[in-house]
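Sharing a chain and its predicted structure for anyone who wants a worked example. Both blocks are below, sequence first, tokens second.
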Amino acid sequence: KDVFNLTGVLQQLEAQFTIKDVVEDARRIGFWLAANLIGPVLSWLIRFSTTTDIASLDYAVFVLEFERAFAGKVDTFDLLNKFSSMNQKNNVDGYIAEFDKYRSFLPANTLSNKALTNLFIKGLQPTLAKKFRLHK
């Protein structure tokens, strides 16, 4: 899942809990794990579960620990992979908004403006990318 949008991930889960009437903490944690157990979240859980009895943990405490682990932190490698795989689907404005969202997560000076520009153009639809390259 997109841990770069921490609030959004947690809000989506809360909505699913409400819709599916999941109220017990153990079920909520299990549901959360099933939805998010990949990449950095999996690594965090492995470390976290070595020092914490997850089965007896309150869901609110679990969420707090998750937020503490990921708030303000970015896995630059995963983020760069995201940039490399981005493509304009339809609307160029949507592509720009998504690109800017992920760019804002990059630590300062991770990529030069030239590298960011090249990644941006690479993800554009071919006809639009060609126009940008001609004017670059």
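Comments welcome. Residues 4 and 116 are 19 Å apart (CA to CA).
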